[in-house]
Amino acid sequence: MGVAPHALAQSTAAPTGATPITLDQAMADPDWIGPPVEAAWWAWDGQRVQYNLKRDGEAIRDTWQAGIAGGTPERIDGAARAELDGPLPAYDATRSRMAFVRNGDVFVRDLRSGALTQVTRTEARESRPQWSRQGNLVFRAGNEWFQWQPGLGTSQAAAVQAAKDPATEPRADELRDRQLRLIDTLATERARREAVREQEEAWREVDPTRAPPTAWLGEDLVIVDSALSPDADWLLVVTEAKGADKGKAGQMPRYVTESGYEEFEDVRTRVGRNAPVPHRLWLVETSSGAVSELSFDGLPGIARDPLAELREKAELPPLEGNRALRVERDAYGSGPAIAWRDDGSAAAVLLRAVDNKDRWIATVTPRAGAAAGASLASRHRLTDPAWINWGFNDFGWTADGALWLLSEQTGYSHLYLAEGNGTPRALTSGEWEVSAPELSADGRTFYFTCNRNWPGDYEVCAVDRDGGPVREVTSLDGVENFALSPDGSQLLVRHSLAYLPPQLSVVEVAGGGARQLTDTRTAEFRARQWIEPEIVQIPSTDGAGTIWGKYYGPAQMEPGRKYPVVMFVHGAGYLQNVHARYPNYFREQMFHNLLVQRGYIVLDLDFRASEGYGRDWRTAIYRDMGTPELQDYLDGLAWLGEHRQGDVDRAGIYGGSYGGFLTFMALFKEPGAFKAGAALRPVADWSQYNHQYTSNILNTPELDPEAYLRSSPIELAAGLQDRLLIAHGMIDNNVFYKDSVMMAQRLIELRKDKWELASYPLERHGFVHPDSWYDEYRRILELFEDALK
């Protein structure tokens, strides 16, 4: 590393006169840029912060510490690591202790004295610590739950098994009954066993030192999630059917291996092969082991089939009864879908229809001794004829028991609060998005990430829980995330800019200037002269409003000159790249600098389907992928010709993943519009992609074959007449290499020329080896130089 990670730049502006970027440098190992600050958190005293940095030339992540008053950060090594705090702490009701997980173990820090208590030291990976109102701590290890009580230590708090209750009366059997009637010894031994079991249960009820009784769910289920109330009285358990058919998985060959032999890797199922397995939800009373299933019948709209017309058109049988549900916040398990109040009196549960047209937040209020009497009460329903977002589903409780949640019900994610049993009321509104809310230490203020100024300008905002104006706490433009200090007076903000990888600053919650703590860039990277992307707004000819873009061009345009055009397409579909933050595509951004050096102009768009612009922008592609987005690129191309001296007759397009898919669609559906395209790790046929993503947008191939015919490039490949480069990692377990192989065979059979396939034997979806990056972008550059100049 060319500069120590603690070195703090006075300005993010680069000096003039630096060396132009080369392809070799742009595609080199990003260590030459300097490591971004990864996870970051407060130390217990609120005077220091701790954070992770990748070690130069290695995959090791070191932990660093910096004082907020200044000074030189230090790397924490050796025995000092035993005193580290951890991210995402849980605070008790008095804010005098915090619990956190470090190295898979639970720790408790006294915020008054700094004393550190290690609660667990196991090979298990503990998670989800939560304090009770009485000051006890519960946490999870796998699907087992434990309780830590100061002065008493740790004990098992709940026991549940997906197995047959040994006390269950066996099914009637004439032979067994005959044996017990005729053989007294068998009957006597059976009676004695039953007496022992009954006595054990009786003693357990009066002996608080015993472990809780096991709750038996039956042998036809698998436990997939659980959540214990902080008072340890109640356990919610999520299950699915044992042995459920999850569809046929694929096998991916690996040719370049350490063994020297071909190897095969199991990979995901394809869309529609089968739908995610439905969940069931159970309430367990831990003191008795009593189990009750919670019915979904009361959820509004649960019995309505939003796909009934498509089902009828496809000549499929109609659905009977309720739609299948899952208890999950998103497809990736990034957050728990059950949240208990800290007094254990109620839990909120997020339920999502498997067809993803509806999601509900429901509450359950258990009563002691009446597990069977508990039921779900719907508190908020979000429905969409296209699909519900996987994001913006945060929810939780205030200290006084009000339910807060995010919802896209107005078309944009906003914050709502429901007190008592009332309807949630909006705390924020407008054509902008709220994300990652965090409640202040005193419970009066919500802090959250917002993009109020323009869709790519992210700040920390705040609003009073009783409502009122929203205020921006920061003015950093590129906020990534933040954490409140233990006393709630300061924010640790992780932020970035176009050429500034994520760094740390501290901001007072009352507002004011940011104190930047880190600048981990190398001197070499800071010394270069970079082209700041110009944020542009392009009118949509489809009536969709504004298409936001990043434009890269020379500082001074030559009068009368027409510049060849390169258009970049970001991946994921639902991803934002037109923002003030450091881009996921930092290599591509450097490549765009190189293209401008070579006489091109470059435009990068947040086409319809992109993140950051509300629900309607996201769902504009429902059942028709590749049409609205392509029109946005055609509008962008025309705009470049009219406003930036772009030569619309010498235009190229490229991108990876979804960007590769859209490159296919541009060349196949609008031949001649782009003289060359590079489709990197592209989707060629959406029927080969995963269920969670694809079924939301196109339903399933069986249910909606027309959507797949319109949206899959392989169906449209006959339209190719321009230059095409396909590049794909051969061990890509996201978009399978098979997609590009199938496309190659299709182009061969169509007798198309002017295309090539570049294969990378040791790369997955995201390339990691500089040699591969260089080879891929060398080909892209040569393609554009040959076809557009």
List the helices and strands and how they pair.
Blueprint: H1 23-26, E1 40-42, E2 48-54, E3 61-67, E4 74-75, E5 90-91, E6 97-102, E7 105-110, E8 116-118, E9 126-131, E10 137-141, E11 144-149, E12 153-161, H2 174-182, H3 184-206, E13 214-216, E14 221-228, E15 234-241, E16 250-254, E17 263-267, E18 280-285, E19 290-294, H4 308-313, E20 325-326, E21 338-340, E22 347-353, E23 358-364, E24 376-383, E25 395-397, E26 403-407, E27 414-418, E28 425-426, E29 434-439, E30 445-450, E31 459-464, E32 471-472, E33 479-484, E34 490-497, E35 500-508, E36 515-516, H5 523-526, E37 534-539, E38 546-552, E39 563-569, H6 586-597, E40 601-605, H7 615-619, H8 628-643, E41 646-656, H9 658-669, E42 676-680, H10 691-698, H11 705-711, E43 723-729, H12 737-749, E44 755-760, H13 770-788
Parallel strand pairs: 12-13, 39-40, 39-41, 41-42, 42-43, 43-44
Antiparallel strand pairs: 1-2, 2-3, 3-4, 5-6, 6-7, 7-8, 9-10, 10-11, 11-12, 14-15, 15-18, 16-17, 18-19, 20-22, 21-22, 22-23, 23-24, 25-26, 26-27, 27-28, 29-30, 30-31, 31-32, 33-34, 34-35, 35-36, 37-38, 38-40
Helix pairs in contact: 2-3
